[in-house]
Specification:
- Strands 4, 14, 15, 16, 17, 18, 19, 20 and 21 form a nine-stranded mixed sheet that branches.
- The protein has 427 residues and is an alpha/beta fold.
Amino acid sequence: MNAFHYPNNELYCEEVPVAKLAKQHGTPLWIYSENKFLHEYRELAAAFADCDPVICYSVKANSNLSILKSLNEAGCSFDVVSGGELFRVGKAGADTTRVVFAGVGKTDSEIHDALAQKILMFNVESEAELDAISAVAGQMQVIASVALRLNPDIDAKTHHKTTTGKKGNKFGMDIERHNALAAKVLADPHLQLRGIHMHLGSPILTTEPYEKAAKKAVDVIAELREKGHEINWINLGGGFGLSYRNEEAPAYSEYAKVIIPYIKQAKCRLALEPGRSIIGNAGVLISEVIFTKREGGKLFIIQDGAMNDLVRPAMYDAFHKLWPVSTPLPVPHDPEAETISDCETCDVVGPVCESCDYFAKDRALPVLKRGDLLCTFSTGAYGSVMSSNYNSRPRGAEVLVSGSEVQLVRKKETYDDLIAFEIDYLK
């Protein structure tokens, strides 16, 4: 399903013209297609249906309340990594008994709140965390369900800043320690070992790392059961690829093909934590061209969208397709591999005072002028959720489109919003 399309040379989200939304809500503007992310969730659920998974949408990918509410109503559960995310999914109406809580630095107050809401399990990242969960559970006179996050030392062949399954990463515990860690849980009256957790990184564009991880998980499960542990969950995290450039990400069915046989062999329940693959291509960022200039032998397109809105290019050298909202030229299948006529190579940059404030470098784009609208695609994941007010720039509005219906799901910030938590304390 492609929610963003160009009938009559004008970009639409589902049935709504994007230019109309930009005029109404201003730019920079985040636009999300509800039918697109629900389609992705349902496709993923169908691919893994043979093992009846609990699909826990990774809230960190995009935590907008309306998106969470829509996914919850579709039957999705959630993976959270902070007390704030747990609070959000509660406000979205989630059944917290199906929520998993990951993250390397859970505080005692976060652990307390999660236990009070009877979450499905904690993905435990360190032995010290086991001690902390046990202590809080003991104070509350409850038993905490935990999964050991084991680092399988598998190279997922993704960006070095988003790989999480190799030794030396801050995440998880060495897989060789699983017996000692499980024994510690078994001996603790305040802890119950429910499963193991492995997350390899993101985005992962091949199925081989998952097959390796699933095989290691099955071996660990078998060994732990031999030692008397009643363990019945395998959580293989998320990280499924997203097609930013072309169609580089495998279908969900390809991932399922290598994972499901191992889950059935282990006779376990499967938990998954997808985020990017569900929401990534369901969102775009619309910016307006402020100026164009030619200096130093380069053409610069200066837009009002900046690194404080979308930090991925600056942080990860991430690639995003860009194309005008209004143009007779079709969006190229692969902008870096094709020769595109009637286009000129340029750098697309923002107004933030940093040299790394760019969305694209040396990119072929149609002729753009002041006031034109430019769309940055595939920004539904790790876009607005990582935005900031750097340079005292108010963040843009967020709208959710379903068919011809449009809902404002986060208002555009004002200058007053920028100082709202400071003005009452001004000396």
